[in-house]
Amino acid sequence: MTQATGSASTIRRTVGVVAAMLATTTLLGGCGPKSEPASAPQSGPSASPTIDPKQALLDAVPDGTEGTFQFSGKDSANTHSGRVDPASKAIEINTTGVPGSDGITTKMSFLLIGEEVWIKAKFSGKPGLPKFPDKWMKLDRTKLADSNAIPAYDGADQGNAGPLIEAATSVKEQSPGQYAGVIDMSAGNAAEVLEEGEAAALGEAAKTVPFTAVVDADKHLTSLTLKIPAAGKAKAYDYVVNYAKYGTAPKIDVPTGAAATNAPKMAYEMLNG
Fold it and tell me: Model-level pTM?
């Protein structure tokens, strides 16, 4: 869903995990720092500095200094929600995939606190699908064949707003806190935010994807919406990122007692599959 100017973040990796687990089910069943502010142009020695709209948006992208906050959004195939707790390097991610051609719906949650990770998974849509406890299942990293099988904390900007804004070729502030512009999805790391091959399938249309964004009175990004056009058999859709409750969302705690259990063998089989 760097965090300001770098590669796609944890949500994007989670989508890959959901897709991989769904494929397995049918058989069974980055980041660097935010850009430094650009030098503000001045009309004269006594003129007040003005901030370039694109830089203002980049400065509004969460960088981990805002405290715990919430996020939500959607892409072509999934909806996302959760919390980010930068001080603890913790994330809660909840992802729901739209039903596939086989009618299966996947709901998955990850909880990451430092190096510890828990998972929830639920499949529905047809009989015979694997069933897991409705608890946070603690994973043992040593039992995973690939470290990329699970997400990793790679910054606060879980919706990848930074890489997208960095690829903008036009940004205007239409009114205080209200922005609009055009993004070149073939530039920089923007293409990595979408599903693999999706930006390439857009062809020339990838270079002129319109977007809108909202920044609150505290200079925090609260929403970013891209109008992704149709490509071939793929329908047009909105790529949406929402951030809320900066500094006031509940901190992320380790699940204990009846809320947690150790992951069963089947969870590793699916993740390693």
Answer: 0.83
